[in-house]
Structure formats: structure tokens, C-alpha cells
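Hi team,

Below is the intake form for UDP-N-acetyl-D-mannosaminuronic acid transferase from Escherichia coli. Please confirm the fields before the structure is written into the shared record.

FORM ID: S-0412
PROTEIN: UDP-N-acetyl-D-mannosaminuronic acid transferase
ORGANISM: Escherichia coli
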Amino acid sequence: MARAGKEGTPVFLVGGKPEVLAQTEAKLRNQWNVNIVGSQDGYFKPEQRQALFERIHASGAQIVTVAMGSPKQEIFMRDCRLVHPDALYMGVGGTYDVFTGHVKRAPKIWQTLGLEWLYRLLSQPSRIKRQLRLLRYLRWHYTGNL
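The structure came back. Fields below:
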């Protein structure tokens, strides 16, 4: 984002709670002078997706960050690319929450070992059910059976 700010690259942010998104926008502008051309919190209805895709396209964004968690953000990015293919899409999960200080990062040792995901899973047990579904999907994807 620092480079995007230096170069004036247009950025569109999608996802997160409204207050977290607003803080993310403010911090990106203040810290790196990021050219944010639009944003949308993660609380929109499925029937609003197409209009959002059109907004992103009309904004001219060259970078679109999507913080909706997996697999929602990947599905969103795949579908949005059909309307606005000329952008770099980044699925950033809970990055907005960490960036604004709403969620604490894992201790350095967990980060160094590449286990930050496990720390988050253990510290937020509500995520376990979703991650188990992801593992079932991966098994199906690679083996063809559940």
C-alpha cells in the first residue's frame, strides 16, 4: 500500500465492519496517502453484488482488496473480475481488523514459524467449524469424494 500511495494507484476496499472499514480508509490515507476511490463494508445483500461490481468498475480501481474471509472473498473476486478484469485483486481476510488494532496479531514466535493462522484459530474457536468445512472441501477437490 505504501507503493500504491506513492504512485497514486486507485484502490477500492471491500469488506469488514463499517467502523473498521472507515478506520482502515483513514489510516491508509494518513499513513501512505493511498488514493482510495471507493469502499463497501462486508454487510451487503447478494442482490447488491452486481451493482457493487459496477461501482468497482466505474471507480477505475487498479487494486481491489477484499476482506470477507475465505471462501467468500475468493468467490467475490472471481465474480468481480468478470466485470472489472483490469485490476489486482487481493483477498486479505481479517487484515483490516489487525491493521486498525481491533484484533491482536499473534506473538512474534508464531509469526516467525508461519503459524499465525493456527494462533488465530486457537484464540477464536468460532472459526474452527468454518476451517473444518474448508478441509472437507479441499479433500473433495483433490480426491473427488467426501
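SUMMARY LINE: The helical segments are 2-7, 18-32, 49-59, 72-83, 95-99, 108-112, 116-123, 128-143.

Thanks, M.
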